[in-house]
Amino acid sequence: MADLTTTAPRAVTNPRATLQDLLPKLVLAPSFALILIFVYGFIIFTAFLSFSGSKLLPDFSTWVGFGNYVRLFNHPNWITALKNLAIFSVLYIVICSFIGLALAIFLDQKIRGEGVLRPIYLYPMALSFIVTGVAWKWFLDPGIGLEHVMQTWGWESFSFRWIKEGQMAIYTIVIAAVWQSSGFVMAMFLAGLRGVDNEIIKAAQIDGASTLTIYRRIIIPLMRPVFLSAFVVLAHLAIKSYDLVVAMTDGGPGTATWTPALFMQKFTFGRNEMGMGAASAIIMMMMIFTIIVPYLYSELGGKKK
Amino acid sequence: MSAVSQDVATRNSIFTRAIIYVVLILFAIYYLLPLYVMVVNSLKPLDEIRQGNMLALPQQWTIAPWLSAWSTAQIGVQPVGLKPYFINSMMMVVPAVAISTMLGALNGYVLTKWRFKGDNIVFGLMLLACFIPFQIVLIPSARILGMTGLAGTITGLVLIHAIYGLGFTTLFFRNYYEAFPTELIRAAQIDGASFFQIFRRILLPSSGPIIVVTVIWQFTNIWNDFLFGSSFSGFNSIPLTVALNNLVNSSTGVKEYNVHFAGAILAALPTLIVYIVSGRYFVRGLMAGAVKG
Question: How many angstroms from the chain centroid is the CA of residue A56?
Answer without folding.
Answer: 30
